[in-house]
Specification:
Elements: E1 9-12, H1 18-29, E2 33-38, H2 41-53, E3 58-62, H3 70-80, E4 87-90, H4 105-133, E5 136-141, H5 154-173, E6 179-186, H6 192-198, H7 203-208, H8 220-230, E7 241-244
Parallel strand pairs: 1-2, 1-4, 2-3, 4-5, 5-6, 6-7
Helix pairs in contact: 1-8, 3-4, 4-5
Length: 250
């Protein structure tokens, strides 16, 4: 489909549902070939099928980012298929709700592996190609927890803040005229991951009390920002930390 992103390929990690799927859909609607990455084969294939049914360009890429070799294998597969991405949206993450005194070794390991180590490996796998071709868009999906963490997000918030530090470091040091690195920080977005938490007695009311707009966000609320950052109109935005949280960080 022709559009402002025609000719571009967007790899969105964790894109089988939620914010990742919303972003992948919006980029595909703008003409990009959307690569739906996930470790859930059924959900990823279903998302790709839905996009194709709408006449959009999409394909599935299955990999478990907890495996150190996954990003390099992903890069080799995409290169073999002629789908090397010039847009990388880092959406896949692990979020375990634990307070400081109850953080488990397993939760620390999983969140650090996916939120931090996989970020580095994905950048190493795909950023060199962007630099060589002279165009690239790196977008990390951060979290409002970086600015105002809940007690239950002790380790998760730290890993997301560290991921953002990596992206800002690249934004400052790459010095490539058309390769940008930015961060989108969602707040309380009504995704499958958050529904279970918000379904706890009194929890939704508690969250809404912290949001100046007085309502929860939608996954689509993040998609328009991602499109701007990938488009010509957003080509001079670099090193931005864009909150999509209804003011929850304030």
């Amino acid at each position: 489909m022709a559009g402002p992103l025609s000719g571009h390929t967007a790899l969105v990690t964790g894109a089988a549902r939620g914010i990742g799927l919303a972003i992948a859909t919006r980029l595909a609607e703008a003409g990009a070939h959307a690569i739906i990455h996930d470790r859930d084969v059924v959900a990823a294939d279903a998302a790709t099928t839905d996009l194709r049914a709408k006449g959009l360009a999409a394909s599935t890429l299955i990999a478990d980012l907890a495996e150190a070799a996954a990003p390099s294998a992903m890069a080799a597969e995409l290169k073999a298929n002629g789908n090397e991405p010039d847009i990388l949206v880092l959406c896949a993450s692990v979020e375990t709700l634990e307070t400081w005194d109850a953080v488990s070794e397993a939760a620390m390991a999983a969140q650090t592996e996916i939120n931090l180590h996989a970020t580095v490996r994905l950048l190493q796998a795909f950023l060199p190609g962007m630099l060589m071709r002279g165009f690239g868009r790196i977008i990390a999906i951060g979290s409002v927890q970086e600015a105002r963490p809940n007690p239950t997000h002790f380790h998760y918030a730290a890993t997301k803040a560290a991921q953002s530090n990596m992206i800002l470091d690249l934004a400052r040091t790459l010095r490539a005229p058309d390769v940008t690195c930015n961060i989108i920080r969602p707040g309380a977005i009504l995704t499958d991951r958050n529904r279970a938490v918000l379904g706890q007695p009194g929890r939704e009311e508690q969250v809404l009390a912290r949001i100046p707009l007085g309502r929860l966000g939608r996954a689509d609320d993040c998609a328009g920002v991602a499109l701007l950052l990938c488009s010509r109109e957003g080509s001079y935005i670099n090193g931005a930390e864009i909150a999509v949280d209804g003011g929850m960080r304030l």
